Amino acid sequence: MRTTVGIIGAGPAGLLLARLLHNAGIDAVVLESRDRSYVERRQRAGILEQGTADVLRAAGAGERMDREGLRHDGIELRFDRRRHRVDFPALTGGRSVMVYAQTEVCKDLIALQLQDGGPLLFEAEALAVEDAGTDAPRIRFRHEGREDVLECAYVVGCDGFWGVARKAIPAGPAHVFERAYPFGWLGILADVPPSHDELVYARHDRGFALLSMRSPSVSRLYLQVPDGTDAGAWSDEEIWDELERRFETDDDWRLERGPITQKSVTPMRSYVHEPMRHGRLFLAGDAAHIVPPTGAKGLNLAVGDVVTFARALTHRQETGSPELLDAYSATCLRRVWQAERFSYDMTTLLHTAPGATAFEDRLQLARLERIASSRAAETDLAEAYTGFPFG
Known about the structure:
It is built from twelve helices and 20 strands. The chain is of the alpha+beta class.
């Protein structure tokens, strides 16, 4: 097999890249190790920045998002039993975010790819990226019980942290920056309408809590728990009781309870691999960087990466200049590090660290008070949450 761009991974990054390249008249093949059903059911992110939503619309993948997604014009911060709303449009010149699950983004992009895009091979396991430092990289993969080779002009690894793409980059020039957090998120899906019409980020002495949603009838909620927690060790009643404690306020707001349909624990870490390119191999999304979910940046960073690559390759095809491709890693990393900074700030602002002192607790409250009382501080949060510019 031969193509211009070999894409490893059919998550939102790989699928969107295939769509962007198709719209630019550049052929691509997508290899995905899992089956279609798994990709369309894989629960991940649910918050789309303004720029991500705009890119999906421009790519022809925004119709169902605009019909079924939930536009959010702000978030609520809770601390010390108080409530403070951050108004995104008022602080950012009209920007907002969209609540639309990653599973739905993937369904939309898969349908478009199968309808009029290039080959999308499910259950095609990438085994290795070979000759990445040359002008003719290859992806060795297994599909339908036999090994094959995809010859490419470029390879883009959208295959996540455990994929093969990053392993093809020599260790010598690579630098890794990471931080592991001593807590995780116990997340639930519940068949109950959300108890608030926007996301609620709660800082509490017992730990962080987040009220989110997947639809008008399905709530998504999270609790900070110690690292290594077993989700099955928490009963449904214990989860609801703890959520109720951490969301408590001095007014008459109440948390609605309902049947819990899913429980899982998400570890918290920050990770960046530099550079994000080696020869004709380019990394995108979790293959190159991971953020704690507090800032809602993971999927959006991946979108920024593939938009940057698609623009750069289109520029190369139209002008013959490799300038933008050569700048890919540096361009993406500027945005990545701003998102890492914001996600770290939100995480340390709202979570209770094991062994935290009374001084550190007071600093958290002082930072929250600053956001609640300063338009400048509030604007900084709103601008970062709604999204940093692509490129």
